Amino acid sequence: MNAKRVLVVDDDENILELMKEYLGMLEIEALTANNGKDGLEKAKTEKPDAVLLDVMMPDMSGSDVAEALKQDPETAGIPVIFLTGLAAREDTEMSPRGGYNFLSKALAGEEFMAKLVKFLP
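^ that's the sequence the OP posted. Answer follows.
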């Protein structure tokens, strides 16, 4: 695992804090944004090694943010991993759609981090 900085984009402050804690345990710096627009700006300016992206947000959907990242030559190479509360706990590795991986927010800490490590560059 070479990721040193990961941008977490989620409208839930509790999820942002939890992801910062998990990434810290993996010795990865967590950058955060609480909406899609801010996430796009941070991705462009900070150039993280990966983006953890909430599927459902009020201003822009995760799909819209991911599409905008892929369309911009400055951010097109940044891997995106979707975070979703919609997946059942048992469905921890949803089928990649459009080349994206999905992680369930329902996973317990160690299990979540083990899955996350598999997806990080």
